[in-house]
Amino acid sequence: MDRLHAAWGARANMTRTLWHKREPSETEKLTWWQRISTPFVAVGLAIVLWLYMRSRDLEVLDNYPVPVEISLAPSQAEWYELELGGASEVRVSFIGPPSRIRELRTRLQSGQLRVQRTISVPEERQSDARYVDVIRIDQQDLEGLAGVQAVIAEKTNRIPVTLRRIIDKQLPVQFQHTGGDRVERTVIEPSTVLVRGPKEVLDREEVLPTQLYQVPLRLADEQNRPLERSVSVPLVSELGGRAIRVSPDRVQVRFVLRPKRRLLELTDVPVHFLTPAGFAFRPQFTSPRAGLITLRVLAPAADSPAGIKAYVDFTSPGRTFSRGLYPEEPIQVQLPPGYELAQEPPRISVELVPLEGTGQPAVSPLSVPRLP
Length: 372
Description:
Layout: H1 2-21, H2 26-55, E1 59-72, E2 80-84, E3 89-96, H3 98-109, E4 115-119, E5 130-136, E6 149-152, E7 158-174, E8 183-189, E9 192-198, H4 199-202, E10 208-209, H5 217-223, E11 227-234, E12 238-239, E13 242-243, E14 245-247, E15 250-257, E16 261-274, E17 281-285, E18 292-300, E19 309-313, E20 324-330, E21 332-334, E22 340-341, E23 347-354
Parallel strand pairs: 1-4, 7-10, 16-19
Antiparallel strand pairs: 1-3, 2-7, 3-6, 5-7, 7-9, 8-15, 9-14, 11-15, 12-13, 16-18, 17-23, 18-22, 19-21, 20-23
């Protein structure tokens, strides 16, 4: 028995010796690394699981347009015109609990959620005709988003604005009409008006036109005589593509509308002499045909030419005459109402010959009524 125990003891000692001398296997090495990394992996999986469970309780409202209202400071609202250079909205994404997102969607659809910004022109730029700026919209501009996170798209959060200086300027009124040269003797009351509009526009303007007035040309043609008209005409409401305000916004216009005319060429019109009483010379032409001229006149279309007189006037005050040839004497042409000379005033050569005998003129003076 003692020998059996001794053999088992020796075998056990040999096994322990071999165990201590043997190298650990690859499987045993990995077991140590796993022991170190397992806590970290567990924590990471827990975070992922938490995020996943958390995401199941959130909802996203993506890329929704939110209107932006930009206004001028009250102290400058009267003196500047505001113009936006792009769309007055920003694109925003919202993340939050489903209940809050539903409430937010209702506010957006009813127009209750909007961005409001007030701007003003710096004091050093208030003399400029135009001021340009860029308004940046950030998350803090969105109010009433408790429990909801807002993300504004970077490319849509900038809105260019232009502010134009407004001034007052007095401008004379210009009558715009379709009558052409058939509208004559125009009188406008009042002749000047007060215009309020952008400085950069009014600085370039010298007159303010009326709206285009359609002249009743046919009415004058039917009556074949000049017509006096008085009409109330509205003034334009914009200049240079910009809105303006005018005071008053209408003017009273009086004018004469003449009927349609035609061009007449009158041949062999005799030229007479108009001499004062006691004139010491007898005027005469250089040849018999020299006393006949051709005239071109504009006459009413329905009229036949009558009452046209041409004469050389020797009754001009302060002018003295002597014997001899006067090669460039102007011819006065007397026309009926509604007629107009369609050429330069003609001239003619006249010779003055002293009277003989009693000193009385050999040619009776022509009595030519003066035109009004």
